Amino acid sequence: MAQLVKFEKTSCYAMSEDEAKFIYKEIFEDVCYDVANLPEEPFVIDAGANIGMFSLFLKQKFPLAKILAFEPAPETYSILRRNLELHNLSGVEALPYGLASQASTEKLTYFPNLPGNSTLKPEEKKQLYELAAERNGKEAAEKRFGGAQQLDVKLERLSNIIKSHPDFTRIDFLKIDVEGAELEVLRGLDDAHWGLVGNIVLETWDASNVRGEIEDLLKSKGFAIKCEEAAWSKGFWMISASREA
Questions:
Q1: Strand order in the sheet with 223-229
Q2: What is the pTM of this model?
Q3: Domains in the chain, ordered, with CATH?
Q4: pLDDT tens digits, residue range 156-202?
């Protein structure tokens, strides 16, 4: 059952209080998704919205922002909607599916005790489970990753979303946190739509083996990129991309 978790700068409902605290620190304190050159009314795509912490952060900084927030896990999507209602946020549209290179229905591995780690790439989470067991013991790892469920979730291409919204003239900020499927989200953009995107920030992990491909793709589309190892764990990387002048 979701519980209300209160922080210094916001509050939100979450299935896991510990995970909510981790996400809050990542977004509000470490400001890992901070972009300096956004307009006062940015249009933002949030791929992997989870419980909505990023939307809460961005709307505090840019009250006039318009956000499309994508979250495919049904229970997490429900909490996302609940958090948007809790803060009476306008200009945020939550959509119950994920973004990918092709429109399809796929199996999502959902972790009810650690929903932010739910993934379309479950083989990578086996490595995280083993690391957690090595550091904290098997019982603790099982508590976090146990009870995994296989759920059918809908995926859509970002270009199809753009085509269905003729008022889209730009994407000021594309934020991606999709647990191993980052490259797939980017591959869902047609060549004709790449020019609409001004800034991208995404998280990736060495185990996904896609960091090099992501960097090469972004460079080929005219972005200047910065890649830094994440503060919270070795092997995780934050890639920031912005249009070169």
A1: 92-95, 66-70, 43-47, 173-176, 199-205, 236-243, 223-229
A2: 0.94
A3: 3-108+153-243 (3.40.50.150)
A4: 999 999 999 877 889 999 999 999 999 999 999 999 999 999 999 99
